Amino acid sequence: MMAQTRPGEAPAVPGSGSRFAIDVRDFLTRQPRQLPSRYLYDELGSALFEAICRLPWYPLTRAEMRLLESHARDILHTGFTTAIELGSGSGAKLSALIGAAGAGRGRLDVHLVDVSGAALAQARRALEIFENVRVTTHETTYEDGLEEARLDRSLPGRRLALFLGSNLGNFDAPGRDAFLGLVRRALDAGDGFLLGVDLVKPEPELLLAYDDPLGVTAAFNLNLVARINRELLGRLDLDGFGHRAVWNRELSRVEMHLRSVREQRIVIGAAGLDFTMAEGETIWTESSYKYRAPEIASMLERSGFRIRSQWLDGVGRFALTLAEAVE
Ligand code: AVI
Q1: Residue 21: Cβ within 10 Å count
Q2: Atom of ligand 1 nearest to the CA of 288
Q3: What is residue 3's predicted lDDT score, i.e. its pLDDT?
Q4: Among candidates 170, 166, 194, which has minimal Cα distance to 58?
Q5: Does the global pTM surpass 0.90?
Q6: pLDDT tens digit string along 197-249?
Q7: Residue 220 and residue 191: Cα distance in Å, rounded?
Q8: Does ligand 1 lie within 6 Å of residue 286's CB atom?
Q9: Which residues contact 106 (CB under 8 A, 6 or more apart)?
Q10: What is the DSSP letter of 276?
Q11: Cα(12) to centroid of ligand 1, in Å?
Q12: Would you say the CB of residue 61 lies under 6 angstroms from ligand 1?
């Protein structure tokens, strides 16, 4: 059992009161066993994800960059005065868009929303080099960031919210619809929404993207086991787990799992866990939903948007959709 802690009192076991410890205890005792994918992104996990984006087998980032650069003028020369990027990371995508839009874009008030302070600092440096761009960072959740950006509005005119990198693919259907509703409610009719989403492609390509021959994605997944050891007094054996990527065709998603290679005892002190995993038993760590272009249009329409343009990258099979909030 986990030790009880009174308000204001330090927990008896270091780390046991953290959200991470509570979630690990909750999700690892569910059937099937699972862990929320947001915990993949500690400092090392974020660096490994940046490396994944450069892998030749992970085409998403390059496909989206090609689309942003090719259509930057169509996107930014239509009178937007404010851009709000949700999950901006290093700022590379928005920088590519602004850079490719060139002169004649007008002043732009940029709001970056991310939970990582280090990523926001990097993104600020990348964006402050542009003329006529004012950068404000919000180290918070998407919901609070949208609200802060609304209150801190400095220029009149239409706003553009951006959600890129196929981050939408990591939401399940209820989470996705809740997120799209949240974005719509934060915007006024006439404001824009730019969404980058990865498309369904042949299974071998999908599996290579999520189980690359260099083992970077495996390291990204296994780092979650290492993180539990580092932060939650875990005593897990890294060699006891293997990385598995599975294409779930019915649900149109690539799943990442950690597979127990043998029967083993799992002890995580700060989560109050002590149980046995059977050989072959898995922990589901992430889903990446893949869409078809018309599905993206209909889910946006259901959430209160009208499609202005949809651009597809045939090589990487990726879609960039510009939508407008409607009454
Ligand atoms: C951040 N997200 C969109 C990535 C994806 O493709 O689902 C995370 C990732 N997982 C494994 N490789 C990359």
Answers
A1: 25
A2: 7
A3: 42
A4: 166
A5: yes
A6: 999 999 999 999 999 999 999 999 999 999 999 999 999 999 999 999 999 99
A7: 36
A8: yes
A9: 79, 81, 132
A10: E
A11: 36
A12: no
